[in-house]
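Is this the right way to post structure tokens for a design question? Let me know if I should format differently. Anyway, here goes:
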């Protein structure tokens, strides 16, 4: 079965015209870009329906196990281009629109990004959904239909300002509202015992209503469902109050309910501890589990079979209430005994850990948990008591400690498998944060190194390179990315190396044009494009990159006639609104950019670009145009990274530390094709033992002293000279992520990069080797790993 079989250009043309006429109610002479985009989207969506239905049919027939991926975040990005790519309709649609005088790219860019996530964790979930469909793994994604996704970022005088995101201000052509699929979600109230059963009398309730989005896989052979929950009031609008003039009170139940799915929390790797967040986590988890049980019971009547038919993945601890909630539903609603309910829940559940940063490990006060979810608090205490008595563990391994519920421990205890997201991260989990639990539950922790989908990240975002790949190694690499290894046999072919270089240059020209239009800057496409795009976080060390930029600028100014390699430094990323240090870093990057970009002495050799509002669509532009990928986190801090993989696939070389998946990238592409610097995770640990590590490192580094001196003197903030004194002070006295200690190594490595770039042909050779070694980082490989090692599911292809 293949969706493409009966899609002729003529039928698609007719479909688009019909949607324009009958769905949008416009004739061609009056249709706006929006109208065309909607008509094209509905038409492409129509074509997904058939494989979507067929996949559902096959799944029911097979009676196999289904996967349920629970995530508070799905960072999807735009959908139309991706769907057309998967269905092979790109050229057909382009031709149809050309005939109407409409540009396909304009249509594509009219679509808002679905930004229901913060960064890597949410984007990983989106790549996984796509891979599960490509692999015909029967699966559902479950998430929240946030009305407002991640905030829009703008810069005002260089500072980040957050604006609300409003992707749902217009109809979403990819979703199907399912008013019939709705569940009651209870909150608060109290629990009573009756006939040996616990009865939870909730004080508040909301409905979770399903909104389904089909997720189509490569070549339209399979489509799974992303089911997002929207919150709706259980109480009707209060007409009596309205009629008596109290309009606000009349709408209160609705307002209360809707706040639940109103906004995505903008914290990446920090937990916020807010009641609304806890409610969101429970809202998603309960709705998903009720839906899973309803589906299961429509096919089977023996709940003990649940672990044979259902695999639930908890994406981080955010849905970790799944343990107690599944036990609650099995006991209180379906009448099972505690032991059975707990065994079944444990058999279904798995947990992925995405970070070791202590500030990200969620805890909830028992007071809040007990107030919002009184029944769950009881269940958690019983799970905890059994966990402690069965394992005889130390008190610091308890789920409840110091009046707080530790969600990582809860997730761990209630999971069959717990996985890390890169080899290094998994090792560190076993050695550090989860060492104790690993001792009492040995072999529960396994590794599944992250991956990314090459359909979106190469085929869609880099057509120029995609053509070179297909011309060189033949078609089909998109769904069998290990085939990229075949490129290695063409390393000595000058034409192939040139073609890779030409594709990169083409993308750099396109990016330069875009930057020209957006920011009024004119970039030199022959300069090295050096890119760091990711959330702004101290551990990711954007600061180190800016320091290097300043060092470079000073060095060029001191010797403008020197043999310099021209560079364009590109930054992109948002800071959590409450993370003030990160926001200062943004301000600082913009101030440095302003100073450097206005210097005529260095203008041809160094430029700094920081486009506002980095998102998935911007990543799709930047990554194909990148020569050098900055992956410079303090070793041991970045669990995996996934941007690093996207750059490698697109032929960028990496300058990086031995952190997260960088370690494996370097192994796969070859150490000689990777610019390594900095301390290892073990050396980082030792370095922290040196109390004045920063001061010592700065005193040993003249370049760093000079840079800090310039900043302290106000060179980058002439109207407010003291602006960055706190930053300089923090460098000397704290430097929690060891920027100073790694700086000289980074500087030396950057000099090596400069030299390498001067030999364009050799650089292209290194790019080729990076692409050839990147096959391992397809999310298809990752998902096959989950299917085999965690879910025990089979592909229905
Ligand atoms: C993250 C990690 O920081 C990142 O390294 C990883 O690639 C990603 C997906 O596993 O998960 N953890 C959190 S929290 N946010 C992330 O992006």
């Amino acid at each position: 079965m293949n969706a493409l079989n009966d899609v002729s250009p003529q039928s698609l043309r007719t479909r688009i015209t019909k949607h324009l006429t009958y769905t949008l109610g416009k004739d061609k002479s009056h249709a706006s870009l929006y109208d065309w985009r909607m008509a094209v989207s509905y038409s492409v969506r129509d074509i997904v329906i058939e494989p979507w239905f067929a996949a559902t049919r096959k799944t029911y027939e097979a009676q196999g196990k289904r996967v349920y991926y629970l995530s508070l975040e799905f960072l999807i990005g735009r959908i139309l281009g991706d769907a057309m790519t998967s269905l092979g309709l790109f050229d057909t649609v382009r031709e149809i629109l050309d005939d109407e005088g409409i540009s396909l790219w304009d249509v594509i860019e009219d679509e808002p990004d679905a930004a229901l996530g913060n960064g890597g964790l949410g984007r990983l979930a989106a790549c996984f959904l796509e891979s599960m469909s490509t692999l015909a793994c029967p699966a559902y994604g479950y998430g929240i239909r946030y009305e407002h996704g991640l905030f829009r970022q703008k810069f005002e005088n260089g500072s980040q300002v957050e604006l609300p995101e409003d992707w749902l201000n217009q109809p979403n052509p990819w979703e199907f509202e399912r008013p019939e699929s709705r569940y009651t979600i209870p909150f608060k109230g109290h629990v009573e015992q009756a006939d040996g059963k616990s009865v939870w009398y909730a004080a508040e309730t909301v409905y979770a209503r399903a909104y389904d989005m089909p997720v189509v896989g490569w070549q339209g052979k399979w489509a799974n469902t992303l089911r997002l929950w929207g919150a709706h009031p259980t109480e009707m609008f209060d007409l009596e109050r309205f009629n008596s003039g109290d309009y606000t009170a009349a709408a209160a139940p609705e307002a209360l309910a809707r706040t639940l799915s109103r906004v995505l929390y903008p914290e990446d790797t920090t937990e916020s501890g807010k009641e609304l967040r806890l409610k969101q986590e429970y809202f998603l988890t309960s709705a998903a589990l009720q839906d899973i049980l309803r589906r299961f019971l429509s096919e089977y009547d023996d709940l003990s079979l649940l672990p044979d038919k259902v695999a639930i993945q908890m994406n981080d601890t955010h849905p970790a209430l799944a343990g107690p909630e599944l036990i609650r539903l099995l006991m209180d609603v379906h009448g099972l005994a505690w032991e059975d309910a707990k065994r079944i829940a444990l058999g279904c559940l798995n947990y992925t850990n995405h970070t070791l940063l202590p500030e990200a490990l969620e805890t909830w006060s028992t007071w809040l948990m007990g107030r919002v979810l009184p029944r769950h608090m009881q269940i958690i205490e019983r799970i905890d008591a059994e966990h402690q008595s069965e394992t005889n563990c130390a008190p610091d391994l308890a789920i409840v400690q110091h009046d707080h519920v530790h969600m990582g421990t809860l997730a761990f205890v209630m999971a069959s498998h717990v996985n890390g997201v890169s080899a290094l991260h998994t090792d560190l989990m076993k050695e550090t944060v989860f060492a104790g639990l690993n001792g009492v539950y040995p072999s529960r922790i396994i590794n599944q190194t992250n991956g990314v989908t090459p359909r979106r990240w190469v085929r869609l975002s880099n057509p120029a390179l995609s053509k070179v790949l297909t011309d060189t190694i033949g078609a089909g690499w998109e769904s069998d990315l290990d085939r990229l290894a075949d490129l290695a046999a063409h390393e000595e072919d000058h034409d192939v190396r040139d073609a890779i270089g030409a594709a990169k240059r083409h993308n750099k020209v396109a990016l330069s044009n875009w930057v020209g239009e957006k920011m009024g800057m004119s970039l030199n496409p022959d300069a090295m494009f050096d890119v760091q795009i990711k959330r702004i976080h101290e551990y990711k060390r954007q600061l180190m990159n800016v320091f290097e930029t300043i060092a470079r600028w000073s060095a060029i100014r001191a010797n403008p006639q020197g043999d310099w390699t021209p560079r364009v430094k590109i930054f992109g990323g948002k800071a959590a609104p409450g993370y003030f240090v990160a926001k200062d870093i943004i301000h600082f990057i913009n101030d440095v950019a302003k100073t450097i970009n206005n210097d005529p002495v260095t203008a041809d050799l160094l430029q700094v670009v920081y486009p506002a509002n980095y998102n998935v669509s911007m990543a799709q532009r930047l990554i194909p145009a990148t020569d050098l990928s900055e992956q410079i986190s303090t070793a041991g801090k970045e669990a995996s990274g996934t941007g690093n993989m996207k750059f490698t696939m697109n032929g960028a070389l990496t300058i990086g530390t031995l952190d997260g998946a960088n370690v494996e990238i370097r192994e796969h592409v070859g150490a000689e094709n990777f610019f390594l610097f900095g301390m290892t995770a073990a050396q980082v640990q030792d370095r922290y033992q040196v109390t004045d590590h920063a001061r010592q490192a700065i005193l040993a580094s003249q370049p760093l002293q000079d840079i800090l001196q310039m900043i302290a003197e106000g060179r980058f903030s002439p109207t407010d000279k003291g602006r960055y004194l706190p930053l300089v002070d923090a460098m000397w006295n704290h430097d929690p992520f060891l920027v100073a200690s790694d700086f000289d190594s980074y500087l030396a490595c950057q000099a090596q990069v400069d030299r390498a770039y001067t030999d364009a042909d050799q650089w292209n050779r290194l790019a080729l080797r990076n692409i050839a070694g990147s096959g391992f980082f397809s999310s298809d490989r990752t998902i096959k790993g989950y299917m085999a090692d965690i879910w025990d599911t089979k592909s229905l292809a």
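Format looks fine. Someone answered above. Worth noting: The mean pLDDT is 97. Residues 63-78+113-450 form a domain with the Rossmann fold fold (CATH 3.40.50.2000).
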